[in-house]
Amino acid sequence: MGLVSIAVSEGIAWVEINNPPVNATSTQLRHELLLAVNEVQGCRRAVLSCAGRSFIAGGDMSEFDQPPQEPHLPDVVDAIEQSDTPFLALLHGNVLGGGLEIAMACAWRIAAPGTRFGLPEVNVGLIPGAGGSQRAPRLLGWELAADMACSGKLLSTDTMLEHGGIDLIADDLMQAAKDFDAPRPTPVSQRDTPLLDADWLTEKRATLIGRSRGQQSPLLNLDALSWAITPFAEGQKKERALHLELRQSNESKALRHVFFAERAVTRPTALRDITAATLNNIVVIGGGLMGSGIAAACLLKGMNVALCERDAAGVERARETLTRLLDGARQRGKISQSRFDQLLADCTIAEGYSAAANADLVIEAVFEELSVKQNVMAELDQIAAPHTLLATNTSYLNPEEIFAPVRDRSRCLGLHFFSPAHIMKLVEVVALTDGSTETLASAFAFARSLGKLPVQAGICDGFIGNRILAAYRRAAEYLLADGALPQEIDAAMRAYGLAMGPFEAQDMSGLQIAEANRRRQDADRPANERYVTLGDQLCEMGRFGQRAGAGWYRYEGRKPLPDSAVTTLIEDYSQQQSITRRSFSATEIQTLLLAVMANEGARIVEEGIAQSDAAVDLVKVHGYGFPRWRGGPMQAAQALGNSKIQEALAALEESSPNSWRRARRFT
Ligand code: NAI
């Protein structure tokens, strides 16, 4: 045995699991645990605990793609529950998935303060596979079981104790186990479930449908829970069958793909052996929406921050914006009132860039104008110490040009945050040709220490995310000209699982941004590329979007409503272009727009702008509301199949010739 050790003393068997990092229930562990259950027979009691920072925090996800190996987890769990020697579980850290299933099979549970309990299978598109959905309602009631299984919520020790999920909270688990004395209770699987209220179930289902944007696993978890009204063995059998079926589902594969991408992409192997500098003194230049957001993100992680503006009025505005953002964090319960006061007092907000002399990292977030940014860099080149890293938050400008005034460009890079910067997790880390790997490694470490997900991007118009967005919007506008309406396209993409469709999203951010992008690209646009002028026409009419009260939609408050004036504008446009309008089904719209995103993503990978498909997917899921349960456009395209993508691209090329370049993999 290697992962499980047993020491018997005074009739008590102390069973300890040691399978770092999180004691996952791998095949080997299940095997050893089952042997241990046999071995402790004859003892008065067995005490089950885990070494390291946590109790069992789930299954070994790397095994999920393979056929399940014996012994299966339900066998181990049942053996523990049915063991003549009763088990006492000592819990600390995270007790998740299979960990909670094992804990619920023990006769008693004692937890250290701060232990967290959950059935997060739903987060990877699964339901529990070892009786979790059947024991949780019996142990904790429907509401808490649903919180865990359907919403992936974690429960605290206090909640668990209050609802009888654990027997005791103790600082010293070992001592508590020695002192513990209670008669063996009825096994959880043999207890009655509380009465299941049909109205509660209907309401829960409706809430989950409203929230899950097409993801199936929250609802399937609710189904599985409801089986707990049948005899345990029956419910468990159905649970296991569905669990195994879901392991093969596209949804689970997609969610696991994102889970792994979040870990792999944000820690590139090429940077693994490079020493990263600790960046703790941060100077942000430009205290607008983005600069203040970045400053707030750094402050909330305890870094030293100075926010620099160009004049006194700018300082005042920056202070207001930063105060508003931090106050939001206070209202959401992220920080206390005193911490809020402290952070504001600690943050230097000043005119001019002198603070840059003591910075580890300077992040520029001034206006999106090359000359303004270059002037900032020319000054920083004089002020900042040689070791100070210089970053730009530009969305579209070429960082190589922004940093032209800097003599040593090995310390320069792009750090493209997303709005609101203190909340959104994505950061595109843009590498310069002359940039050093140390700079890159330090930037990755910095972004991770902010709790962000850094993704490396090369230089092109819009980097990874905005470049795909531009292609997607262009294709959506072609659809308008060819016969679809904004509300049809938006509804189709929402039904696909996106938070918003392309036109309502444009209305929200303001049409002038998209217009400015089109204007900027005018010079590079091939003469024979199809260009739909509808967006420009709306801008000429002053319909700049939600804030202007009208855009692709008309507005009642914030609610977008289809506008007959826009319909007429679109129909007239088609007529002027001699286009016979035709209808598009939701599936056709979804497939076409997915194909465009995947094609642009594939080109970005082929050009070396993104390091992998997973990097593209992470950007779209975390920066652009692409449904996580579809795994990102690359994963979704793969699930749909290359031939469908190629078909959609061919249709697009026919209606819009000379306007698309196909990625090699889709030719
Ligand atoms: P903003 O207009 O809200 O803020 C710019 C701020 O920079 C203003 O407060 C202005 O007073 C200040 N500023 C201008 N020139 C300055 C100078 N020479 N020295 C010091 N401060 C100066 O703009 P926003 O939206 O914050 O954007 C800033 C940068 O971030 C731009 O490059 C933009 O492309 C980029 N970005 C914007 C995103 C967004 O969603 N708004 C998302 C990601 C990047």
TrEMBL record:
<dbReference type="Pfam" id="PF00378">
    <property type="entry name" value="ECH_1"/>
</dbReference>
<keyword id="KW-0560">Oxidoreductase</keyword>
<keyword id="KW-0276">Fatty acid metabolism</keyword>
<dbReference type="GO" id="GO:0004300">
    <property type="term" value="F:enoyl-CoA hydratase activity"/>
</dbReference>
<dbReference type="Pfam" id="PF02737">
    <property type="entry name" value="3HCDH_N"/>
</dbReference>
<keyword id="KW-0413">Isomerase</keyword>
<keyword id="KW-0443">Lipid metabolism</keyword>
<keyword id="KW-0442">Lipid degradation</keyword>
<dbReference type="InterPro" id="IPR001753">
    <property type="entry name" value="Enoyl-CoA_hydra/iso"/>
</dbReference>
<comment type="pathway">
    <text>Lipid metabolism; fatty acid beta-oxidation.</text>
</comment>
<dbReference type="InterPro" id="IPR036291">
    <property type="entry name" value="NAD(P)-bd_dom_sf"/>
</dbReference>
<keyword id="KW-0520">NAD</keyword>
<comment type="subunit">
    <text>Monomer.</text>
</comment>
<dbReference type="InterPro" id="IPR006108">
    <property type="entry name" value="3HC_DH_C"/>
</dbReference>
<keyword id="KW-0511">Multifunctional enzyme</keyword>
<feature type="domain" description="3-hydroxyacyl-CoA dehydrogenase NAD binding">
    <location>
        <begin position="282"/>
        <end position="457"/>
    </location>
</feature>
<dbReference type="GO" id="GO:0006635">
    <property type="term" value="P:fatty acid beta-oxidation"/>
</dbReference>
<dbReference type="GO" id="GO:0070403">
    <property type="term" value="F:NAD+ binding"/>
</dbReference>
<feature type="domain" description="3-hydroxyacyl-CoA dehydrogenase C-terminal">
    <location>
        <begin position="462"/>
        <end position="555"/>
    </location>
</feature>
<protein>
    <submittedName>
        <fullName>Enoyl-CoA hydratase</fullName>
    </submittedName>
</protein>
<keyword id="KW-0576">Peroxisome</keyword>
<dbReference type="InterPro" id="IPR008927">
    <property type="entry name" value="6-PGluconate_DH-like_C_sf"/>
</dbReference>
<keyword id="KW-0456">Lyase</keyword>
<dbReference type="GO" id="GO:0016853">
    <property type="term" value="F:isomerase activity"/>
</dbReference>
<dbReference type="Pfam" id="PF00725">
    <property type="entry name" value="3HCDH"/>
</dbReference>
<dbReference type="GO" id="GO:0003857">
    <property type="term" value="F:(3S)-3-hydroxyacyl-CoA dehydrogenase (NAD+) activity"/>
</dbReference>
<dbReference type="InterPro" id="IPR006176">
    <property type="entry name" value="3-OHacyl-CoA_DH_NAD-bd"/>
</dbReference>
<dbReference type="InterPro" id="IPR029045">
    <property type="entry name" value="ClpP/crotonase-like_dom_sf"/>
</dbReference>
